[in-house]
Design a protein that fits this description.
Blueprint: H1 3-17, H2 21-26, H3 41-56, E1 68-73, E2 78-82, H4 85-95, E3 98-99, E4 105-106, E5 111-117, E6 120-125, E7 131-135, H5 139-156, E8 159-160, H6 170-179, H7 183-190, H8 192-199, H9 204-207, E9 213-219, E10 231-239, H10 247-255, E11 264-265, E12 281-285, E13 291-299, H11 315-326
Parallel strand pairs: 2-7, 10-13
Antiparallel strand pairs: 1-2, 3-4, 3-8, 5-6, 6-7, 9-10, 11-12, 12-13
Helix pairs in contact: 3-8, 4-5
Amino acid sequence: MRRDQISKRAERRSQYTNETYTQARSLLSPNQPPIPAAECGKQRNFEAELFHEVIDSHSDFTEFAFGIRCVRPHLDTIELIVESDRRAGRLLNRILPSYEPDGEVHGMPGLRIRRRSERGIEVHIAGRRASAWLTGVSATVWKRHELSALEHLADMGWKPLWRGMQGWAGEELAFEQRWNTGAWARNFQAGAWCGSGLLRRLGLFHTITPADAVTGYKGLGINGYEGMGPVRWCLDVIHRSGVPYRKERLVAALTDTEFGLPVAPARHLDAIYPPDGMENWIRLDDEARTGLIELRFQTFNYPSLQLDSCEPEYREIAEGVERRIRSWPESDDIR
């Protein structure tokens, strides 16, 4: 491949991952797509579950989409670089598995910390080819958050399940058998490529759209599909007043034949809300109807992200958002 072609691919990849140009170029392979898919089903399913936990654990203002500064996808794993100490704690507390007596398993069943280094921690699902690196803060910070999680569980009388054993705990096996082996689990796994693919392209929601915030959740099925329908990822892309949405650019990036996902605009828009409340919604699905991305562009002015009214704890985040919006080129997208 010619040098200028490699450079262009590295620049494009960095738009999707928010890696630096050098980082993106170092991971390009002439025999692989510029953003490779997870090489096996176990890794793909794990990443879809991890994406679910990433968006569900995001409950605060962050400079980067979902508090993830950038992602580094590999064939057999993925690296998530968190933006802050706080975000590291929220994410780790969300995914570490624990058992509530006479209740249920919380977190990701089977998840264990496999390796620790100055770079961060590697988490994996015991007995499966599925892992992720969590980086962005020091090893000391990750350890502190783990110890804090243990103290919190002790106060509640819950049982930590990620320490002291290599395999799955009995509580995890029972929970897995009850909740993750039926039709709902098979439906989620059929559409896992979508959640995994979005996680591997998370940088788009920072580099392509000048949003103040991006939030999301895994939604229920909607009319217009057979059976349970596709796995539906609802993503709210929220802008301050006067900032164009750039819907067309985000859709073009997600549907790009080389860098994007195998999705196209859905043929229907089930009116789950009044039409005027959905005029800036876009749905993308695949030909097999197993995955659905629901982009919901909105306008809202968060006082915590306005420099003239933000609280001290959000000052740095508000300044970062402001710099990014001011540096954006003019766009003719209509909102």
